[in-house]
Each structure stands twice: as C-alpha cells, then as structure tokens.
Amino acid sequence: MIKRIGIVVCCLLLVGCGQYDSSVGYSDSPIIENDGTEVEESEEGIEKRVKSIPYSGINYNEETITLSSVEIYSTKEGYEYYPYVVINFDFSELSSEGLYWLMKKEAYALDDTFDLSVYLTSLKNDIRFESMRKIYSDYDRNSAIYIWGFLEGNKYDFEDTDLDIILEIKQDETYVYRSKDDKYGLNSSRRNKVNEYRWNINNSISGLRDIEIPILHQKDISEELDNYITEGLQNWLDFYSSLVK
Fold first, then answer.
1. Within a 13 Å sphere around the CA of 21, how many CA atoms are in the beta-carbon half?
2. Number of domains in the chain
3. How far apart are CA 16 and CA 9, in angstroms?
4. How far apart are CA 148 and CA 168, in angstroms?
5. Which own/partner pairs from 27-33 qualify as long-range (CB within 8 Å, at least 24 positions apart)?
6. Residue 53 falls inside a structural domain
7. How far is residue 46 CA from its own chain's centroid?
8. What is the pLDDT of residue 62?
9. Is residue 25 assigned to a domain?
10. 26: CB partners within 8 A, 6+ apart
11. Sign of the C-alpha dihedral, residues 230, 231, 235, 236?
C-alpha cells in the first residue's frame, strides 16, 4: 500500500500560448501509417498523431525508440483519490552514443532533447487538460520509466481519465527559421528540427478515442512500482521542505 506523504502545495499553472507562424509549410495531406497514425511533415520537423501502443515509429535522428506501454491507475488513500500514469520506453535500438545525447541535460538549453509531457482530463473531478507532475523517472541502457501524478488528492475517483501524452524530440538536423514579419530574412536563425508525437487516450469528450486503455487500481500496483512512487513523492517533499528553510 502506498503511504501518502502529506504535501501542502500552492501551484501556479502558467499556460503559454504560441503565435502561429503561417510561413511554416506542411504537407498537403497527412501520411497514414499502417496503424492509422497520421503524419504531417514540415521544415520544422515531423508531427505524428499516433494511433497505437506499443509504437516503434519514434525517431531520434536515424535511430528508433519504442513507446512500449502506458498504464493508468486510480488509487484511493484515506478519503482522497490520486491518479498515476506510468510510461515505459524501449531504448534497445539506440546506440550508446545516441542514448547519451538523447538523455544529456544541457546546462543552458531551454528544452530537453527528450521532452515528455502528460495532460489529464477528469470531468468528474473538474480537471481539464491539466499538466501532471513527473513523480519519478529512470533509465538504463535498454529502457526508461516515467511516472506522473498529482501531489494533491481529489474527491472522486479517476475512472473517467482521458490522457494526452506529448513527446517532443529535438533532432540534430536544423532549418532556417524566419518569422512571417521578417520579409528579408534579416533576423533569421538556425534551429533544430523537432519531431512531435501525440497519443490521445480514452478521450470521451471529443469522442476521438484514438487509443483505449483500461483504468487499473491499487491492487494492481506492484511492489517495485509502489517503491518508485514513494521515492518520487519523498523527493518532492524534500524539495518543498528545502524552500522554506
């Protein structure tokens, strides 16, 4: 049984809205892969709306990554409910050098090369497309695990969970960026291409339901996963405790 570590946290949710640049050229119509995945190509990179799990069509330069599984848990501790999302990746097709640069944290980079985000919707809990916290992550030569959750409990269960998983991977290849207002290219710059992969799971609002995944419960959590979650929550507690010293 996971022991809930009590954390009282006040969070500001900052939502940034990007400005659409009409100068970016996309392919006239999406490419459809065998599993139904929709692919849009542009000079900035590739965007995929993925329709299957596991999915092995994730590219880092010329190498391949597989999203091997996604698990969704609705747990209850005391009178409060907590969701957890567990995402596993297969890195076995990556070279040692590729894995090093994929996971390397650049000191002054604005974004990680491997940038994963998870957004949860639960109408029962009045939660709409809310960014989840990364509770725990780890990787080795062949695989990676990421666990996401909320630090504060909710009144109702998460049986109605909808998920959006977004993975952006920065590529070595670059393109020339120029805003639509820069007619003469005076302020152009080179930027790395970014491939974006999006999984739409259990979407009951739009009715898309690209992928359906059953909701698991407390009894389904392994001892190993329980330990990962407990360790991650303790790290968050230590972090917030350090802020008030």
1. 14
2. 1
3. 22
4. 17
5. 33/57
6. yes
7. 17
8. 96
9. no
10. 40, 41, 42
11. negative
- With contact defined as beta carbons under 8 Å apart, do 189 and 135 qualify? no
Strands 55-60 and 162-177: unpaired
**What are the 10-residue block averages of pLDDT along the chain, 245 residues in total?**
45 34 54 96 96 98 98 97 98 97 77 94 96 97 98 97 97 89 75 96 72 96 97 93 82
- Pick from 63, 73, 68: nearest CA to 50: 68
What token pair was written down for 240? 């917030």
Give Cα 34 to chain centroid, integer Å. 23
What gap in Å lies between CA 109 and CA 93, rounded to an integer? 26
Residue 19 domain-assigned? no
* DSSP string computed for the chain: ---PPP-----------PPP-TTPPBPSS-EE-TT--EEEEETTEEEEEE--SSEEEEEETTEEEEEEEEEEEEEEETTEEEEEEEEEEE-TTS-HHHHHHHH---TT-SS-SEEEEEEEEEGGGTEEEEEPEEEEEEE-SSEEEEEEE-SS-BSS--TT-EEEEEEEEEEEEEEEE--TT-TT-TT-EEEEEEEEEEEEES-TTTS--SB--PEEEGGG--HHHHHHHHHHHHHHHHHHHHHT-
Assess if residue 26 is contained within a domain: no
For 10, the token pair is: 């006040």
**Residue ranges making up the domain that contains 108:** 34-243
Where does residue 241 rank: exposed (0-12), middle (13-18), buried (19+ CB within 10 A)? Answer: exposed
